[in-house]
Amino acid sequence: MLDYHGIAVSSGVAIATAYCLIEPDLSFEQSTISDVNAEIKRLQLAVSQTKEELQEIQALAENKFGKDKAAIFAAHILLLEDPEMLAAIEVKIANGVNAESALHEVALMYIQMFEGMDNAYMQERAADIRDVSNRLLAHLLGVEIPDYSRLSSDVIIVAEDLTPSMTAQLDTKYVKGFITDIGGKTSHSSILARTMGIPAVVGTKIATKQIQHGEKVILDGVTGKIIVDPTKEVIEYYNKRRNSYEQLEQELVQYRSLKSISADGFAIEIAGNIGKPEDVERIITSGGDGVGLFRTEFLYMDRQDLPNEEEQFNIYRQVLEKMQGKPVVVRTLDIGGDKNLPYLKLPSETNPFLGYRAIRLCLNEQEIFRVQIRALLRASVYGNLKIMFPMIATLDEFRAAKEIILEEKGLLSSAGIAVSDSIEIGLMIEIPSAAIIADLFAQEADFLSIGTNDLIQYTLAADRMNENVAYLYQPYHPAILRLIKMIIDAGHKHGKWVGMCGEMAGDEIAIPILLALGLDEFSMNASSILKTRAQISKLSKEQLESHIEHLLMLSTASDVEQYVCTHLIV
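^ that's the sequence the OP posted. Answer follows.
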């Protein structure tokens, strides 16, 4: 039995076998073959196996994510069966080269040909050929390519990292948790783990080197502990812990239909964060007061091209209708940083988190932005829509983005297309410059939403994805608390509501502070909604306010945490 530690990012206990998502070794040696027919038959068998595998994946993807997202696998099957490519491979085999080498040479020729074309669409096909040829090569070599879309038993995913699109596809029916080598509390995979309600530990640095595929693993998402090959006694202990955790979750169900009100009658909103339409169900079953953050970038990921206006319109309408008049705050496209779209061919940057991303990209690539805005405006009549812009640094950016909304609204109205007259337009305050001039934004925006995940990393100059500086991700740092107070005060001064959609909104230590500061809306992952409502119901805002002056004078984040635990946690 071995145990390791990482950063606990999503609560709960998971006990299952390890499923290691490690790139397979597809290396081979070129050799001369004597039996050409046997080698061609080996190729044909590998093609047949690959086709069967792709058909299975396509059917599963279509069932889970719809025909549009599954279409890529149909395209891969067509590539696999391309008679010209297969004929070229067989010609090389006929010249005495083994199937692996023949496949590699032909695939490389096609990849280089497509990459050299001027047409962006044709350039993107190179990635498809690489994917299909690697899958075919794996079958020739008898090597299994990890593919969690076809899981049929309980597993804990072990990987160096999980991209946002990979994490969004995890099937919680079988994926009971995940462990990664890298990452931090607010990396996007961690956020999605909390959204899906599965335990996760990240930043272990060594998980992929120490945990073997198929080994029994216990994952403690509360303490960050990982146990490999546990004894029966340890399994029994953690089974009890898991049962206790699940029992606590059941006890919170009583708060599902209650209003979000403090012990002294102060009403707030407790909303949920979502990344895709299916996440709305978790908000509804948790009794959420609305959607406080719809991360629309996930509609653009794990696909080969941009979603069109009609596709987006249907998704936004679906979310608005399901929420039945409760507010839905939609964040416009926020890509860049660790959320890249390969088909957009964005420029390589030394520091993408401070570069060409989010609103900066949207204001420059206006056709992409306007398609999303038109879809949102058309959907607005089906519910209570609020639109907010990410990564706003200057008032000019906010004004330019808002002007695009007004222009598109006018064009739609002129065309006789109905648009709601009650859409609120706001922004995320996640850059220190925006926090400092929050009073100016509050004069022109309908609401402010504090994005603490980025606000903390930019204020403390600490990459939130980097486990080596994880100690600097300090939500209770006095500088952060003072900025939050400044933003809330600025909003209220101009009669605007202020929300928070960063992970801090669901933090047990931060909640009493935020309540005391007068935060109007707390938005978090669905699994935290009932726990937060229960906590707030036991807190008196008036009593908490008497501690604020002292809290803001404390010197360090640890001082703040200790004070809250001693004096403010019920």
